[in-house]
Amino acid sequence: MQCWPVGVSRLSSGVWELTGAGLAVVAPMVGVPLTVMTFYLKGLREQQAGRYSDLAERVSLIGDELRRVVEDVGQIRRDFATKEEWLRETMWARGRIEALSAAVLRAESELESQGGLVATSKHTHRLVAEMAKKAGIGGERLDGCDNGESR
């Protein structure tokens, strides 16, 4: 005779046997799809990891290219600023040359209009020629050289 635990009848042991047999039949029906789902999810995770690494590599390449573009734009700005600076300095030098030319023209016109240096030079030449005549040394030669004045 079998000893059953207290409160458990022979009928309840049959339920356990039936439940075990049912699980044995259902286990392959549940286990196979669970295994397929597990491998499917693992494949998705690997695919996502691969896509993430590809994306990270692309973002890194884009970042490198962006840094290169920023450096090129900076170089263009430096080149443009250099050309702008050169243009500014050239215009300043041109202005200074024009001011100098105007000062020279003003000085020449003052000398010609007031008699200034040209008249003083002619007067000095005449005095030297007269002194040479009085001294008797080459006065004819100096007298004939009067800076283009007519006699």
List strands and helices in order, with pairings:
Layout: H1 10-114, H2 116-135, H3 139-144
Averaged pLDDT: 77
Number of helices: 3
Distance between the termini: 172 Å
Shape designation: rod-shaped
Overall radius of gyration: 57 Å
Major sheet description = none
- Look at the helices and sheets and give the structural class: mainly alpha
Unreliable runs, pLDDT <50, ≥5 residues?
Answer: 146-151
- Total domain modules: 2
Order of helices and strands: HHH
Strand percentage: under 5%
Say how many strands there are. 0
Residues in helix, %: over 70%
Q: How would you sum up this structure, described in words?
A:
It is a single chain. With 151 residues, the chain is mostly helical. The protein has 2 domains: 89 residues; 37 residues, no CATH class. Helix content is 87%, strand content 0%.
Short description:
The protein is rod-shaped.
List keywords for this structure.
mainly alpha; 87% helix; 151 residues; 2 domains; disordered C terminus
